[in-house]
Each structure stands twice: as C-alpha cells, then as structure tokens.
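queue> pop job 88
queue> type: inverse folding (structure -> sequence)
queue> payload:
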C-alpha cells in the first residue's frame, strides 16, 4: 500500500511539471508573436526610409546652369579668328622669333560658339599673330588710363604711371594688362585756334591770357595795353608755336 501511494504521488508530480512546461512554452510563443507584430511595422518603416533616402532623395542637388561672365564678350556664331582672347585658350610658344609671324593652336572655352570659313561650328582652330609681348605693341593697340594731376606744359615733359589694357581683337604674349610710363596727355578743353585768334585780335586787352586761365598775365596786359604792343606780339608767337598753353597744364584740343 505504501508503494502504491508513492507511485500515485509521482504521477501527480510529473503531470504538474508537464503542465508547467507547456504553460511556459505557450507564454514564450505568445511573447515572440507580440514582439514580431510590434517590430514589423518599424522595420518596414525603416526600410522605406532607407530606400527613399538612397534611391529617390527628397532634395536633389540642382545642377549648375550659371553662364560664365566671359560669354558676354564673345560674339555668337562669329569667326573663330575674331574671338577676343578671353573667349579662347591657346598654347602659346614664348620661344618664337620676335617680330616674326607665329601660329598658335587654340580652343574655344565652354559656352562659346564660333564658325570657320565654311560656316561650320568648330572648337579647335589656329590663329596667326606677330611674336611680341603685349607691352611691346604699338600705342594704337592698347588703351591706357589718363592722369589729370600732371602738367603737360613743362620742361622737361612730365610722365605718369598708367595702366594699359590691350584691345580685344589684338593678340599678344604675356599679360594683357600692364603698367607703363606715359607722357602727360590730358586736355582741359582749350582750343589752340581760339587762343591764337584771341591773341591776334584782342591780345592787347589780355583776352588770350584770360581764355587760357592765366588771370595775372591777363590783368597785366590789360592795364599795360599789351605792353605797348610788344607783349602782344610776343604772345602771338608763343601761342602760335604752342609754348604758352592752358594754366591747368593740359594740352590743346
């Protein structure tokens, strides 16, 4: 009887353990289902974010459509040989013989269009020029700044520091903007013909000196009646040869 009761207690204990294990398995499976249900939308949302961020971004970088500033200086569909130097890039050879004709290979810059002799658009072409540096060009091939602070009528003639720029249709070696010492060449608007006419007709009253802005000499001639005519004759000669000029030191027109 004691062995039979022990066997029954052992069976009850096994059934209780089996029930507890099944309950534990059921609880674990339910938790995994809950976690997968909650994590699935998050993973899909994260996946959608990564897909949109890598494949189709919301903000695309705008392509640069700005036109370079040099394009305004370049004539459209004109001869390539007449393009300004700012519109092309050339392989210059500084070892060419000075004063001799030279040929250089050039290429147009982006956004620049030019034509050859047959009206065909081209990018590579050649230009012919004289082998010389820009500061060696003739005075008509560049434009320089003027100075109104130096005296043009002086001995010796005064010079000033000018900044010169080569004209667009001229090709040369070196920098196209360069400094140069020039003689004072500005004018205040006085005419040589008017000064000479006043000296001949009304020089005895100092009209020529007043016209040139020389008030002291004009008053001296006025009150001395042209130095009794002698000063008048001298001024006619001095103005005629250009020795007497405007009081501001400028040149005649």
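queue> result:
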């Amino acid at each position: 009887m004691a062995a039979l009761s022990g066997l029954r207690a052992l069976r009850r204990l096994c059934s209780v353990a089996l029930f507890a294990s099944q309950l534990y398995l059921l609880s674990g499976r339910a938790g995994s289902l809950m976690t997968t249900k909650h994590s699935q939308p998050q993973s899909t949302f994260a996946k959608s974010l990564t897909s949109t961020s890598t494949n189709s971004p919301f903000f695309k970088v705008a392509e640069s459509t700005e036109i370079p500033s040099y394009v305004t200086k370049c004539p459209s569909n004109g001869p390539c040989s007449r393009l300004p130097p700012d519109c092309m890039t050339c392989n210059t050879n500084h070892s060419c013989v000075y004063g001799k004709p030279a040929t250089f290979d050039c290429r147009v810059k982006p956004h620049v269009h030019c034509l050859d002799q047959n009206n065909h658009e081209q990018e590579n072409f050649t230009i012919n020029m004289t082998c010389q540096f820009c500061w060696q060009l003739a005075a008509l091939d560049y434009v320089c700044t003027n100075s109104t602070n130096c005296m043009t009528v002086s001995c010796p003639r005064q010079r000033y520091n000018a900044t010169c720029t080569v004209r667009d249709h001229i090709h040369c070696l070196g920098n196209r903007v360069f400094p140069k010492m020039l003689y004072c060449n500005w004018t205040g608007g006085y005419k040589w013909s008017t000064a000479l006419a006043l000296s001949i007709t009304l020089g005895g009253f100092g009209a020529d000196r007043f016209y040139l802005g020389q008030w002291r000499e004009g008053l001296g001639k006025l009150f001395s009646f042209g130095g009794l005519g002698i000063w008048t004759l001298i001024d006619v000669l001095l103005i005629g040869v250009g020795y007497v000029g405007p009081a501001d030191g400028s040149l005649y027109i």
